[in-house]
Each structure stands twice: as structure tokens, then as C-alpha cells.
Amino acid sequence: MLVELGVVEQRHAAVLEVFSGAPVTIVAERFHRTVRAEFLSGRRFASQQEAQAALDAWVAHYNDERPHQGIGMVPPARRFAPASRAGYTAALRRPHAGTPPVGV
Q1: Strands (E), 1-104
Q2: Which one, out of 8, 36, 83, 102, has a CA that is 20 to 30 A from the CA of 25?
Q3: Which residues lie across from 23 on neighbouring strands?
Q4: Dihedral sign (CA 69, 70, 71, 76)
Q5: Domain boundaries, given as residue ranges, for the chain
């Protein structure tokens, strides 16, 4: 469905390309490697609930506090923070390259 809508491009059956150009499988594998190295390495959990609570806290840290090299050493929450409604509306009104301004 995403391929038909033009959101992603199908390269072959198992890999979809995202806007950044990195195949989804590479992004997922990189994240899993980080989880193993930074979260799971040497840890044991007494229960599934304990493991889930620890993972939830780690994911919050990963998204809100941990700097990421690929996005300029800032946390994703800072880099990809949602725009205010006013900022979003203003951005929609701005002409894109090669598009004449509204009303011209």
C-alpha cells in the first residue's frame, strides 16, 4: 500500500526505501544493534514486567536525551520536534522551489 501511495519505493520484495535513502532493514538492524549493545548487554530481568519497564525507560532516554551521530549529535525528540500549529500553517503557505508564490 505504501508503495502504491508513493510514500516508499520498492527496491525488491524484502527492502523498502525510505525518504532518507536508507533501506528500512538497515535502519532496523542498526537500532537492534544499539539495543543489544546499550540496553541488553549483561542484563538479566526477574520478570517480563521488569524488562518492559526498563526498556520503556531506555527508549525514552534514547529518543529524548541520547545524542545521535546521524542527526548532528542531538536527540531525535529535539531534531524531529513537532512544529506548532501556527508554524505548520505558515510552512504550508511558503512556496517551494520552482513554485510561484500563492496569488501570483
Answers
A1: 9-12, 15-17
A2: 83
A3: 17
A4: negative
A5: 1-43, 46-94
